[in-house]
Write a structure and sequence with these properties.
homodimer; about 350 residues; alpha/beta; Rossmann fold; 3 domains; 6-stranded parallel β-sheet; 12 strands; about 45% helix; elongated
C-alpha cells in the first residue's frame, strides 16, 4: 500500500540527508540556495505537504471548523431544515476551502465533551453551535475554553460569542396578524421542544400577542411536542376532539403540519372551510399537499451561509457580532381562510 | 481569551520543570512515581490532552474519516436521500466516537485534490466515496495514495477498495414486473444523471428487461435528467405530449415523481386511471401526495450505517470486502393501476 511521502523519501530522491531536507523545507539556514530549490522541487513532485500535525505544533491554524448536533442521528432525515442549514454552511466553507468536522452526539453533555476534546486535540479552529437552549451550558464552556464560536439562533449570546439569529417572535406576530385578519380567535400552536430557545420565543410571542389582542389564554395557546410527525398528529387529534376546538392550527415544522392535515382529513374536518393550517417552515412538502399549506418562507440555506461566514470572520480576527437573518415571510396559500360562521 | 492547557501550564501548577511533565505524561523514566502521579492529576484538572498533532506525528491514527460530496451545495437540500445516508453514517460513527470531516467540492477534480490534501495533512484515516461514476478517476487515485476507502454504491470496486452497494438492476426488474403484471407496455423511465454508475445500471436493466419481455425499445426507454424537480417536470411534459404517450412513468427520485404528478394533473391526465407513476425512493413526499405514490422503499440510513461500519472495519485491519445492502422493496400504493383499455 502506498504511503504519505516523508522527509526520508524526499532525502532519498534528492540524494541529500534528512536534515538537509528539514532545513530546506522549514526555511532554515544550513543548505545552499541551489540545494534548497532542488529539495523543494522533489518535495513538490512527490506530493509532500507539511502535515496538519506539524503545522498545528507550529501554532498554525488547523483549517477546519466543527459542528456537533445533539439529536438522535435517526431524526436527521426527518426535517428539511437541518439539511438546508448544512448546505448553506457548506457553501460558505467550500468557498473558503475549509472542511467541516461533523458529529452527532447523544446529548448536551456529550456535545460539551466533544468541544473540550476537539479543542484540546487541535481538531478545529472554531465551532458552530446549533439548537440554543433556554438553559444552555455551552456558551460558558466555550468562553472558558477560549474556543471561537458562533451560535446559530441566539439573539443575545453571552459575550464574547458571536451569533446569527432569526426573529421568531416577529414571525409569530405575522402569523397571528394573518389569522386574526381572517377572523380566527381560537388558535393552537403545535410547538416543538420547549427547551429550545427559538421554540420558547415563539411560545412567549404567542402569549404576549394574544393578551395584547384580548384573546383568551385558554383559546390561544401552545402545546409542546418533540417535532415528530407522530406527536404532531397526536396533538392535532387531541385539540380537534376537545370541546370548543381551535379554528386554526400553527405548526412548528413542515412534517407536523402535513401530519396534522392528514388527521383533519381523517376526522372529516375540511381545510380550510372549517380549519386553517399554517406551517412554520416552507418546504416541498407544504407545496404538494392538498390544499397547499400557508407557510413561513425563509432562506434557511442563507441562514447557514451567514453563520459560517461569521465564524470565518471571527477566525480571521473579526470582533464578536450579533447578526440577524432575513425576516421570514408568510406566504398565504390554500390552507387558510375565514373560520366557519357557526363558530 | 483562554488557551488550550500546555506542558508549561502543567509544570507551573505542579511546581516542576517542563521536562519532568514531559517525562511523566509520556511514560518515560526520570521522575518518581509520586511526582508522576501528581503531574498526571494536575494535567487532568487542567483538561490537558495529547493533541492530535502530537499523536499523528507519533504515527497514531487521526481518529476521523472523510466524506467529500462533488455536487453544488445548494442541491443538498433537495433530496432526502443524502440526508438519510448521512444520518446512517453518523449513527455508526457516533457509536465509535469518530467524527466525520465533510466538505462539498465543485467537481471530481476538486474532490480528488481534497483526498490528496487530507491524506498528506493527516486529517483523516479513511474516506467514504459516494456517487460512483461510469468513468471514475477516484479508485485509482485512492489506491495509489494508499488512502483506505469504502465506495458507496459500486458493485465491482477496483481492488483493494471495499464497497457497499444496492442492486439497482434487480430493483428495476421489480418495477417492470409490477407494471407488466398490470398490463403496461409503454413505460418511460425518467432517469437521473446518466454518468452516475447506479443510474447507468438502472438504464441498462430497463433495456435488457424490455428486450427479454418483447417490448418495443422505442416504447420502453429512459430519458436522462439532472434529478431536479424542474427537469423531472419538463421530461414528463415532453413524453406525455408526444404521440403514443407512455401509460406508466418511473422516476429516479421522489422529487421528480411529485413534480411529474403535478404536470399530469395540470394536463388533465388522471393518475392512475390513465397514467401510472412509480417513484424510486420512498419518502414523506410520496406518502402525502394524492394519490399516494407507489415507491421503492429502502433503508437508506441503514445503507449509510453499513458503509461507515465497513470503513471502520477496514481501519481496524479488516480485509477489503464487497457488501450488498438489503434489496429495495416495491410498495404498491394508489398511483399504479392497469392502463386504460383504449390504449
Amino acid at each position: 500500500m502506498a504511503r504519505r511521502p516523508t522527509i526520508k523519501d524526499i532525502a532519498r530522491r534528492a540524494g541529500v540527508s534528512e536534515s538537509a531536507v528539514s532545513f530546506a523545507l522549514n526555511g532554515r539556514p544550513g543548505v545552499s540556495d541551489g540545494t534548497r530549490a532542488r529539495i523543494r522541487r522533489v518535495a513538490e513532485e512527490l506530493g509532500w505537504r507539511p502535515d496538519s500535525a506539524a503545522r498545528a505544533l507550529s501554532g498554525e491554524r488547523v483549517g477546519a471548523v466543527g459542528l456537533v448536533l445533539a439529536r438522535p442521528a435517526h431524526t436527521l432525515g426527518v426535517e428539511s431544515f437541518f439539511l438546508q442549514l448544512v448546505s448553506g454552511i457548506q457553501e460558505a466553507l467550500s468557498a473558503a476551502g475549509t472542511p467541516l468536522l461533523f458529529q452527532v452526539a447523544e446529548d448536551l453533555d456529550a456535545e460539551c465533551a466533544l468541544y473540550r476534546r476537539w479543542w484540546a486535540e487541535r481538531r478545529v479552529d472554531g465551532v458552530l453551535v446549533v439548537d440554543p437552549r433556554t438553559r444552555d451550558p455551552r456558551p460558558a464552556l466555550l468562553t472558558a475554553l477560549g474556543l471561537p464560536a458562533v451560535t446559530v439562533g441566539d439573539p443575545r449570546p453571552a459575550p464574547p460569542l458571536s451569533s446569527v439569529w432569526a426573529d421568531d417572535a416577529r414571525a409569530m406576530v405575522q402569523v397571528l396578524d394573518h389569522l386574526a385578519a381572517l377572523g380566527h380567535r381560537r388558535i393552537v400552536h403545535v410547538a416543538g421542544l420547549p427547551d429550545l430557545a427559538h421554540t420558547a420565543r415563539r411560545i412567549d410571542s404567542l402569549r404576549i400577542e394574544a393578551r395584547r389582542r384580548g384573546l383568551r389564554p385558554d383559546e390561544v395557546r401552545s402545546v409542546p411536542t418533540d417535532y415528530s410527525d407522530a406527536e404532531g398528529a397526536a396533538a392535532t387529534r387531541r385539540v380537534l376532539c376537545a370541546p370548543r376546538p381551535p379554528t386554526a392550527l400553527v405548526y412548528d415544522n413542515d412534517v407536523m403540519a402535513v401530519a396534522g392535515a392528514a388527521v383533519a382529513a381523517g376526522l372529516g374536518i375540511p381545510v380550510p372551510a372549517r380549519l386553517s393550517l399554517v406551517a412554520w417552515d416552507d418546504s416541498a412538502l407544504c407545496r404538494v399537499t392538498h390544499p397547499r399549506l400557508t407557510a413561513l418562507v425563509r432562506d434557511t440555506a442563507g441562514f447557514g451561509r451567514l453563520a459560517a461566514e461569521e465564524l470565518l470572520a471571527v477566525l480571521a480576527g473579526g470582533p464578536p457580532r450579533v447578526r440577524q437573518a432575513e425576516q421570514p415571510r408568510l406566504e398565504p396559500r390554500e390552507s387558510t381562510a375565514p373560520p366557519p360562521p357557526a363558530y
